[in-house]
Structure formats: structure tokens, C-alpha cells
Design goal:
568 residues, mainly alpha, 8 strands
Length: 568
């Protein structure tokens, strides 16, 4: 099938329209845009619609997209941030990269690939998509959870490994048949030293005053960032280092400036738009006829990424003293490959190290793993409950590292009320109960919330209120009441309702005391009472009633009405 000849403008407009339509379908299926972009590239290629004929224009936009993407990676490489990475994140990240690449290399050799292709594919399997993971964890409100923080930590380690891998590949490609625009070893050495000196002088003397000047105009700041990324990419390519390292270096030079986060936010949309053309260029150069032979290897490698990668993280975190639930939820975040996997393979093709068939293989693995892992993370709670009986081998008898986060002796002291969730509302409830002379014990999966609760003077434990095993090991018989103030997660294919999970777990564990749950939707009250809740609290309705009372007192010229729980 082929469309008639079109001009470049009409062709680009048609490509963007196709990507938009597939993006709408992907959104309805809760898929990230990268899946829609890859699908658009394949459909627009020569074997289906054959839309991409202005290959030079698409290739140019593709190169700019890679420069901008690596510029944003460089922006995150602030040395202060890198130095502050926790030991757990570093150990888990390096362990996952090491085991994944080693096992992936062996699998590729067994399937008949040569050793160079095996190395490239194995390394590509180690990269996980930070963009996708952050979006999914944010939707589930798990960015600040223990497993979320650990996952984001080892994703930064992966980003560092991406940088290392690309530097190695670019170095190996110097002087090769498809080497970049360099003019020989002397040019390379002189150009590299000059580029390094330019970056050093810029960071030390020019970055701060220039950024202060440019910050007066948000539009000018963005234009400068793109110009700086493309400029250094061009210079680096000219001396033989490649556009990728130039874009990365441009980001590193601005990583320590105050506008780093602002630039990252402003350029995110541009990055996403330009990446479309990378995938379109990828699809235009792909022969779907050769993909049939890659289905078997793609299935095998996809299963390894979907199952093997999470198990690797689970085993490492279990050995380091974390509960199996924490390791499992963190492990699910590496059950896919990323856009960097495809860019890394594209570098290998450009340098003549691997054939196009290897790119087709990794593209298939990307489509499969990204599509499925989105649902794995979305349904992580249900998936854990299904797999929990098989995961005991990945947990120490005493998960000492996670227990170290608890208030010393908290579980041994007497308490009257268990408060699940120490967000703003849960913490105020615990504070009000404590002010009334009761002894609350708080539980939250956010280490920061636990720390703040301790500073307020009451006991708190780090844990997941939706974990039946965790709740069952608590001394439930000592509590007269349990208050569930955990957030209800929306935006997923199915809502993960912490109140329902906790209520059912408590009743199944034999708790017979009062269970109170907080709701933001009064229509759900009946359901909670059906599954065992005794009292339903409505923060918004209750707050509105108290606020109206206070307003009426003030309007009638009286002193402000007293409030409970220290609320003012």
C-alpha cells in the first residue's frame, strides 16, 4: 500500500496526524506515547503506508530530537545529586545493570547472535524508561513511597550507565567506517581538549551570569538551551565525538545552575514532539519482512525483561534487608526497556557495529515490554497478592533494613488507635487523638511522613497499609480502633482503594474493633460499610461544616468558635 507523492510539508502534517490518532488510541488503553510513536513509525514505513519519503527532513528532526533528549539527561547529572545517591540505589542499580547485561548476553549468544550484536542487545535491555516510570508512580501517588524512592534512585544510576555506554560506543566508533565528521586522530584529540576546556570555562565563569541574564525572558532561555544543545552537538560531531556526546555535554554544563529544573520542564514537551521523528525515521528504515524472523528471539528477550529484571531487583533488595513487597514493587519499574535502548542501537548501526535486524529485534522487545509493563505497574497491588506466596525466598527472616526505619520499640509500647496513612489528614487525626489523651500508632509508606510524625511526638512505623501480611503481624488485639486515612488512587485502569484493602485485611486478620475510613466520595460509604467499616469520615464535608460554623460566629460578632484537634 502506498500513498501518492506529497510535498514535504503535507507529508509531515500527515505523519503528525497519524501519530495523534494512534496517541488517542494509546491514551484510551493507558499506554505511554512512546508506544504510539513506535507504532506510527512502523505504519508510516515503506512496508505499510509508505508516507515517509522526505527522509532527509525527518532524519534531521530525528537528530535534533536526540540532541535535546541527551541534553535533558545531562541536565540531571548534577554532581551533588549523584554524590547524594543512597547506597541502596547504587547497589540495586549497578546489580541490576550487571546481572541483566550478563544474562542477556548469554541469551543472545545461545540464540545465535554474534558476540558484538549480543553485547549491544544485552546493554540495551538494561535501560528502563524514567519518563514512563515517573508518570506511572505519580499517577499512583507512589513517588514518595519507599519503593518509589528506591526505584527513582536506581533509575538515576541507569541514566549514568546510559552515559557511560554511549561514551564507550562513541570511543569505539572513532576512525571506523561510519565515524562521525572528524578529520583524524589529531583533529579528534585537539577538538576534544578544546571542547573540554570550553565546557570547563563555561561552567566556572559564564554559566551563572549568562543564566541570570537569560532568565529575564522564559522564551529566550528555552531558545538558548536548544541552541546550546544543538551547537555543542554539532561541534562534538565535527571533531569526531558524535552529536550524542555533544548534546549530553551541553546538559552537563547547565546541570548545576538554578534553572536546571525549569529548563527540564520547559523542554519536556519539545522533547516528546521531536522524539516522534526519531521513531518515524526508525520505522521508515525498517523492513517488516525481516521482523518475522525476530519474533522468537523477541518473545524470549521480552519474557526475560518482564520477569527476569524484576526478579533480579527483588533478589538484590531482599538480600539487602527489604521486605519482599518493597522489592517486588520496586522491581516492576524495570520490566521494560526505554527510548535510550533504541537510540543506543541506532548508534551501533550508524557506527557499523550491528545490522538493522538487531534494531528490529530491540524495537519489538520495546513494544512488548513497554505495553505490558504499564499494566503490571498499574495493577501492582493485585499482581503482588497473586505472586506473594512464591516470593518468600526473596525475603530475609528479619528484613532488618526496613525495620530500621521504624520507631525503636514502637510495636512493643501500648497503643489505643492505629492510624493508617500519615498525610495531612491522617497526621492531624493522630495529633488530635494524642491531644485527647489517646496513644496513636501511625503507619505510612512514605519515610518522610514517618519522620515528621516522630518529630510530632507519636510513634510511627514504615509500612504499607494495603499489605495484609504487614497488618497481620501487628498486635491488632491491643487497638480499640483503626482509622484508615490512606489516599484513594485514581487515574488507573482500576482504582487501587487503600481503604477497602486495609478494611478487608483487618477483618480477615480477626480485628473486631472500630474501623473508620475517610472518603472523598459519599457514594462509596455503603460499600465500605458492607465490607466491614463501622464509621465513614468525610474530610471535605466535615471541614465545610466547621468552616461554615466559624464564618457564622465571626459574622455574628462572636469570638471564633473553638476547634478540635488543634485545627485553626
Amino acid at each position: 500500500m502506498s500513498l501518492p507523492e506529497l510535498g514535504t510539508f503535507y507529508e509531515i502534517a500527515l505523519l503528525i496526524g497519524l501519530a495523534t490518532l494512534l496517541g488517542i488510541v494509546g491514551t484510551l488503553l493507558r499506554q505511554p506515547m512512546i508506544v504510539a510513536f513506535i507504532a506510527a513509525g512502523l505504519l508510516a514505513g515503506p512496508d505499510v503506508l509508505n508516507i515517509v519519503r522526505s527522509t532527509e527532513a525527518v532524519a534531521l528532526l530525528s537528530q535534533i530530537s536526540i540532541a535535546v533528549l541527551l541534553f535533558l539527561v545531562g541536565l540531571k547529572l548534577d554532581m551533588t545529586l549523584v554524590r547524594n545517591l543512597g547506597r541502596v540505589a547504587v547497589a540495586t542499580g549497578l546489580g541490576q545493570v550487571g546481572f541483566t547485561s550478563a544474562i542477556g548476553f548469554v541469551l543472545c549468544l545461545v540464540m545465535g547472535f554474534d558476540w558484538v550484536t549480543s553485547i549491544y542487545v544485552a546493554v540495551a535491555l538494561t535501560f528502563s524508561s524514567t519518563i514512563i516510570i515517573v508518570k506511572l508512580l505519580s499517577d499512583k501517588r507512589e513517588v514518595d513511597s519507599l519503593h518509589g524512592k528506591i526505584a527513582l534512585g536506581f533509575l538515576i544510576v541507569q541514566d549514568l550507565f546510559v552515559v557511560f555506554a554511549m561514551v564507550v560506543v562513541s570511543t569505539l566508533g572513532i576512525g571506523g567506517p561510519e565515524a562521525h565528521g572528524g578529520g583524524g586522530l589529531v583533529t579528534l584529540v585537539i577538538g576534544t581538549l578544546a571542547l573540554a576546556a570550553l565546557a570547563g570555562v563555561f561552567i566556572r565563569h559564564l554559566a551563572e551570569p549568562l543564566i541570570r541574564l537569560l532568565s529575564r525572558s522564559g522564551e529566550l532561555l528555552v531558545i538558548f538551551a536548544v541552541a546550546w544543545a544543538a551547537g555543542l552537538a554539532a561541534v562534538a560531531d565535527l571533531v569526531g565525538l558524535g552529536k550524542e556526546l555533544g548534546g549530553l555535554l551541553a546538559g552537563v554544563t547547565l546541570a548545576s545552575t538554578p534553572v536546571r529544573d525549569l529548563l527540564g520542564a520547559r523542554l519536556a514537551a519539545l522533547r516528546d514532539f521531536l522524539l516522534l521523528f526519531f521513531f518515524l525515521s526508525l520505522g521508515a528504515g525498517m523492513d517488516l519482512g525481516t521482523l518475522g524472523a525476530q519474533v522468537g528471539p523477541a518473545v524470549a528477550l521480552s519474557l526475560f525483561v518482564l520477569i527476569g529484571n524484576p526478579l533480579i531487583v527483588l533478589a538484590i533488595m531482599g538480600y539487602m534487608g527489604y521486605r519482599k513487597r518493597t522489592g517486588f514493587l520496586a522491581g516492576l519499574t524495570v520490566a521494560q526497556i526505554s527510548e535510550f535502548s533504541l537510540i543506543f542501537m541506532a548508534m551501533g548501526i550508524g557506527l557499523g557495529h550491528v545490522e538493522a535486524e538487531a534494531m528490529g529485534l530491540v524495537t519489538l522487545v520495546g513494544l512488548v515490554t513497554i505495553t505490558i509493563s504499564v499494566y503490571m505497574i498499574t495493577w501492582s497491588q493485585q499482581l503482588y497478592e497473586l505472586c506473594a506466596p512464591l516470593l518468600g525466598i526473596f525475603e530475609r527472616h528479619t528484613p532488618f533494613r526496613e525495620l530500621a526505619e521504624d520507631t525503636p520499640g514502637a510495636e512493643d509500647r501500648p497503643h489505643d488507635v492505629l492510624v493508617l496513612g500519615l498525610g495531612r489528614f491522617g497526621a492531624r487525626i493522630a495529633g488530635g487523638l494524642r491531644a485527647a489523651g489517646l496513644r496513636p500508632l501511625g503507619i505510612d509508606f512514605n519515610p518522610e511522613s514517618v519522620r515528621m510524625a516522630r518529630e510530632e511526638g507519636f510513634d510511627a512505623i514504615l509500612g504499607d497499609a494495603q499489605d495484609p501480611e504487614f497488618l497481620a503481624h501487628l498486635p491488632l488485639g491491643s487497638f480499640s480502633a483503626v482509622v484508615s486515612a490512606t489516599p484513594r488512587i485514581t487515574g488507573a485502569l482500576t482504582e487501587a482503594d487503600g481503604h477497602a484493602a486495609a478494611t478487608l485485611a483487618l477483618r480477615e486478620a480477626g480485628f473486631r474493633g472500630l474501623i473508620a475510613v475517610t472518603v472523598d466520595d459519599p457514594a462509596r460509604s455503603v460499600r465500605y460499610r458492607t465490607i466491614g467499616a463501622d464509621l465513614v469520615l468525610s474530610p471535605f464535608d466535615d471541614a465545610a461544616e466547621v468552616s461554615v460554623t466559624r464564618l457564622l460566629h465571626r459574622l455574628r460578632g462572636r469570638e471564633d468558635a473553638p476547634t478540635s484537634g488543634g485545627i485553626t
